[in-house]
Amino acid sequence: MTDVNEVDVLIIGAGISGVFAAKCYLDLHPESRLVILDRDTCVGGTWNSRRGYDSFWTQWTVGTAEFSDQAMPRPPDEDVYLEFFKAKHTTKYIESYVDTHSYNDRSLRDRIQFSIEVQSVLKSGNEWTVSAKERTSEVQHTFKTPKLIVASGLTSIPNMPSLPGREKFQGQVLHHNDFGSSNVLISPDIQTITILGAGKSSADMAYEAVKAGKKVNWILKATDTTGPGFFLSPKGVGPYKNAFEIGMTRVAATFTPSFMNGINWWTKLLHSTRYGVKLMSSFWDTVDADARKDANFGRENEHGFEKLSPHSPIFWQNCTGGLLNHKDFFDTISENVQIYSGDVQGLEDGLLRLQSGEKIPSDAILCGTGWVPSLQFFTEEQCRELGLPHLVASEPENEKAHWAELEAEADRKTLATFPQLQSPPEHYHKTTTHTPYRLYRHIAPLCESSAAAGDRTIVFLGQVSVGNYFPTVECQALWALAYLDGKLALPGREEQEQGVALFTAWCRRRYLSNGEEGNNMTFELIGYLDLLLGDMGLRSHRKGWFGDLFAPLWAKDLGGLRGEFVKKLGYEKVEK
């Protein structure tokens, strides 16, 4: 038997995006019947207590990784390094956030239903029917809602590699998703650990396994790969305590060629003139050289440490990467980890076998092999209609031709504006099987321009790759609220399509393989926030001219947004 629940708004996902979306909506609609569904057992998404472990660190810093209405208590000094901090404090913060925000005598936590797996969504008229099941009991649930907020994130469902012979392997095979809740680091039966993957999660697991006294092998894929990730020193320069603070300044944002920064005399000088392009190329070459020097990939080593050298320059971001949280990371890895470059053929009892014939003794296999899309409850046809990635082969020829024409024109504009993007280095490029995202402002399906027109029943939050989700979600949630409430006027559909095509073409040129999905904003956070705030008529420059240029964006800087939003979009009558 399936129970049917009618709610005013349904949110899929209880991570950072889903939690703040609920808070934002209930702030102005406190009587609403709002429910949040999450497939995990606890709140926080990537940062939940099940996935965390004591030595898991954030990639963001104190004062930047919180919502503007509630400060995160400063972690103790032993849990802070150059203002980066252990991820367990983000977990505690989100746990506290859902308990301290209540509406109509119910907290945000009271509205979350855990261990619920969404299976399908169906649109009928202006109502969504969401079918789900309990992961532990298979009990079925149905939710009907006129407003659906999808906040399922980019790191929800593990991408597990095919490992022939796994049934013969007697040890544990885990994804990074389950690393924190496993016993691999403390089990006396596990002495040798083999890690698959080339990104930050693999690097973290390799480091932690060494520190736990394990013998560690690290396998980097040899073919069809963008190569190992860039792992950077987090140290700052001048008045900046760390590299993250520098990246959260508006002036640093202008050092990358992007339409989001606006086209003005400064950005033209840096990215459209021969002198500026040469200057910026020199700047990024210096960053690249310094990163490689810090790692010292050329050191004499019998463990294959040189294999960790990234295959492409840091500017292009064709591989994964991240900031390091341990001063001794490279020394620890080079001295203790055996690194292989090879493709996995399969598993045997106590062994991982490479296609080269090498057999690597292993008591446990840890996979830092990324994630699959969390939007699998949509059909291919729904993905096409909503502007979500779908198989290129399934796209009707007229639509394929339409977008090809738009993107070709956008590509010409991109190269005319940013000549530096015309000549990328030689690099591996992943085979494209799916279309990119085609959401307007990376949130909403393409729709009619009138605020009251079109199907304004669904939005997508957190489906972008950025360095800090807290300010991103804060602005996305306000934009989505105004959109769902019919208070946000948008340009015509043709202009929306042109904007989507321009970002798609630019993203492919700027981020190569990592730009194919059309949602990469590694260096575009501030410009993206400016776009969202501008759409709502809100102030994007909030710190004075000097602070806006040179000071990092702190969470507290967005503190006045809600009040401005209420007045600008006519919500005064529903204020508490």
From TrEMBL:
Pfam families documented for this protein: FMO-like (PF00743)
UniProt xrefs under Gene3D superfamilies: FAD/NAD(P)-binding domain
InterPro entries for this protein: FAD/NAD-bd_sf (IPR036188), Flavin_mOase (IPR000960), Flavin_mOase-like (IPR020946), FMO-like (IPR050346)
Signal peptide: none
GO terms of molecular function: flavin adenine dinucleotide binding; N,N-dimethylaniline monooxygenase activity; NADP binding
Keywords of the record: FAD, Flavoprotein, Monooxygenase, NADP, Oxidoreductase
Membership in a protein family: Belongs to the FMO family.
PANTHER family tied to this protein: DIMETHYLANILINE MONOOXYGENASE (PTHR23023)
Name this polypeptide is given: FAD-dependent monooxygenase DEP4
